[in-house]
Amino acid sequence: EAGVAQSPRYKIIEKRQSVAFWCNPISGHATLYWYQQILGQGPKLLIQFQNNGVVDDSQLPKDRFSAERLKGVDSTLKIQPAKLEDSAVYLCASSFDRGREKLFFGSGTQLSVL
Amino acid sequence: RKEVEQDPGPFNVPEGATVAFNCTYSNSASQSFFWYRQDCRKEPKLLMSVYSSGNEDGRFTAQLNRASQYISLLIRDSKLSDSATYLCVVNTLGAAGNKLTFGGGTRVLVKP
After folding, report:
1. How far apart are CA B61 and CA B84, in angstroms?
2. Which of A80, A94, B4, B74 fits a 20 to 30 Å CA distance from B22?
């Protein structure tokens, strides 16, 4: 079974530039999550989708971050403009349904903002 | 107070020894609990769920104390391969449905 796919694996940008990350969840998984993990900290939920609808985006900095999940399958997360403090690993995860708490994570995108 | 708190460690453990660490949570309405394992520069992976009666999976034992609002993980006969960060995850039912909150992780280093 294919896992959660994410790209790119690494990204280096300068502050004020924009960047986008892509995630393809496990086939059939209705719930998709984007997490931000700063070095030395646990993952912090940015946004949660159920199919193509947003369930929770309370911790998403909406002035610079946006995410979409068109057609309820793959998803993109965008940062525009990036700040130094956005340097982190961005993890995408999926689960079969909202009631299923087992998350399957992708390998993540390591973002460095210079 | 953070929703989910863990001692960051590191816990330096001799190979073959036992190590245990806790995770406290602030919301008494939290419903379910999990331990995830994260290797260096890798993604988190589910280690085990934590049940009210406590549960064991090989050398790993997880327990839940609802009265004091903490969960624990115990690793017996530690192996070098147990070196990792252990993330506590708490599931709370809110207005938007299930919300999974991660702790900051406890780093364990098993040494020969």
Report:
1. 16
2. A94
User: Tens of pLDDT along chain B (112 residues)?
Assistant: 789 999 999 999 999 999 999 999 999 889 899 999 999 999 999 999 998 888 999 999 999 999 999 999 999 999 999 999 999 999 988 776 778 899 999 999 999 9
Whether B86 and B108 have beta carbons less than 8 Å apart is answered as yes
Interface residue of A105, A107, A110 to substitute, partner B, most B CBs within 10 Å: A105
Take residue B98 and report the two structure tokens written for it.
């299930």
Contact B89 A101 (CB under 8 A): yes
Closest-CA distance of chain A to residue B71, Å: 17
Q: How far apart are CA B102 and CA B11, in angstroms?
A: 19
With CA atoms as reference, the chain A residue closest to B31 would be A101
